[in-house]
Amino acid sequence: MARVDGRRADELRLIKMRRGFTKAPAGSVLIKTGRTHVLCTATVEEGVPKWRQDSGLGWVTAEYEMLPSSTGERRARNRGGKIDGRTQEIQRLIGRSLRAVVDMKRLGERTIWLDCDVLQADGGTRTAGITGAYVALAEAVRKLRAKRLIESNPIMDSVAAVSVGLVRGKVLLDLCYEEDKDADVDFNVVQTGRGRYVEVQGAAEAGTFSQAQMTKILSMAGKGLRKLRKIQEETLGK
């Protein structure tokens, strides 16, 4: 089956990361996965939420938003303080994914905010957000260490995410929007650099899927995630 953009079934979209895209936050990266563009920033604040005070532990949390012009139709800005269910689900996923690789004791009582703003959407915004947010987080931690605000690196491993879907009976890696909307099965796979799963979100949109298909989906995700980790490493440098 020919893909809409001519890729092989197991081929990622063209991935580009530009670290230090904005100068104000402690860490930032613009990640482009095909036509999906997400700006990920990391901001460090001294102190933690009330429920975590005096614990000696830090906190990592995330917020996610799609800009009004990120899709074909204008999206209204969130001015009332309430967020829709999809947005809440995605930002919680990003936060969980990054917390999975951070030693909060080493971070100390400070909070790192990871903001993922979708500039342009063409499928896979949550997976791009996780993959880019890790780079922004790593850059912010480097600056904390350079200033000797923390003694040792609290990041225990890398983390990245990718989508895989079953489209007309074919397993495809890194779905664009046209593929995603037609997928019979849609998975988002979050994995650490050591190959440990943080989260696997998968559901059949129509019908069911077999054990063999699920195994193939996870295998293809692993292949894509290894490539993403290499790009993260190249973006961060030594």
Describe this structure in words.
By secondary structure, the protein is an alpha+beta fold. The chain has a single domain, classed as Ribosomal Protein S5, domain 2 (2-Layer Sandwich). The protein is built from 5 helices and 9 strands, in the order ββββααβαββαββα. Strands 1-2-3-5-4 form a 5-stranded mixed β-sheet. A 4-stranded antiparallel β-sheet has the order 7-6-8-9, with helices on both faces. A hairpin with a 4-residue loop joins strand 8 and strand 9. Helix 1 packs across helix 3 and helix 3 packs parallel to helix 5. The chain is globular. The N and C termini lie far apart (40 Å).
- How many H/I helical runs? 5
Percent helix: 25-40%
Looking across the biggest beta sheet, what order are the strands in? Answer: 1-2-3-5-4
CATH class category name: Alpha Beta
Task: Write out key terms for the chains shown.
globular, 238 residues, five-stranded mixed β-sheet, single chain, alpha+beta, Ribosomal Protein S5, domain 2, four-stranded antiparallel β-sheet
Question: What's a quick, concise take on this entry?
Answer:
This protein has helices at 85-99, 104-107, 125-146, 177-182, 211-236, and strands spanning 15-19, 27-33, 36-46, 59-66, 110-120, 159-167, 170-173, 185-192, 197-204.
Question: How are the elements arranged and paired?
Answer:
Layout: E1 15-19, E2 27-33, E3 36-46, E4 59-66, H1 85-99, H2 104-107, E5 110-120, H3 125-146, E6 159-167, E7 170-173, H4 177-182, E8 185-192, E9 197-204, H5 211-236
Parallel strand pairs: 4-5
Antiparallel strand pairs: 1-2, 2-3, 3-5, 6-7, 6-8, 8-9
